[in-house]
Design brief:
Blueprint: E1 34-41, E2 47-57, E3 63-74, E4 81-90, H1 94-106, H2 110-126, H3 135-155
Helix pairs in contact: 1-3, 2-3
Length: about 160
């Protein structure tokens, strides 16, 4: 015949917690780089632009958020595209960094899509002929991309 074990009583709550020590700790910071494609669009016939949000990391494991545009041109022969321009914009302020990080989580909203297609896209497409641009034209195209990218990041918030 099996014997029953006596039931255990639940612990009686105590109000004296002086013998309990709790210490909060933080581990080493971790930052994992990644690239997330958030949009592909055709700024002009025979072209496409891929828009990526990229997170790279400092040696101290702090994230660095970037907005990346890669311009591709349709191959003259065969299928596919050749990459002809790569543009990377690093958020310059904490607000821009936060906006780019938010885009990685939430995707592109309507205002961001509008600034990408109507402002940044045409400026990136202009860079196809960067070798033939005057220094002033090149700086103007870069300024358009920078201003549009800053707006893109802020529109995420």
């Amino acid at each position: 015949m099996a014997t029953k074990k006596p039931a255990t009583k639940p612990a009686t709550p105590t109000t004296d917690l002086s013998n309990l020590k709790v210490t909060t700790t933080t581990g080493n910071k971790v930052c994992k780089p990644f690239v997330l494609e958030v949009m592909v669009f055709a700024p002009d016939s025979g072209f496409k632009i891929e828009v990526n949000i990229e997170r790279s990391c400092t040696p101290q494991a702090d994230p660095i958020w970037k907005l990346v545009f890669d311009l591709y041109k349709k191959k003259k022969v065969g299928e596919g595209f050749d990459q002809i321009v790569h543009v990377s914009y690093t958020g310059k302020t904490p607000v821009e960094q936060k906006g780019l990080a938010a885009t990685a989580v939430n995707g592109i909203n309507d205002k961001q899509a509008d600034v990408t297609v109507n402002r940044i896209g045409p400026a990136v497409t202009e860079l196809e002929n960067a070798k033939n641009m005057t220094p002033q034209e090149l700086e103007a195209a870069k300024a358009n991309i920078q201003d549009g990218s800053s707006a893109f990041a802020k529109f995420a918030l």
